[in-house]
Amino acid sequence: MAKTIAVDGRFQSLIEGLRERGYEVVDLYRPHTGVSACIYYTGIRDFHNADFSDNTAVLMIDGKGRTVEDIEAILQRGVYSSLF
Asked: The whole model's pTM is what?
């Protein structure tokens, strides 16, 4: 089962790359449930449309300056450093 990743729409190359690698990608700022990780763009915006109630943990990743390989490595490790 593919992981569902919520991604800020400004990261088109990450969105395409993650989809090519088998991840389900949803828009970070639209209603969704069941995500494994959120990739945001420098600083956290309002996540009021996101329902994380079904999740035990959601990995928050600042995607600015990262490649799809960087993101996939973080997703596979399940660990990411500071939000800021």
From this structure: 0.79
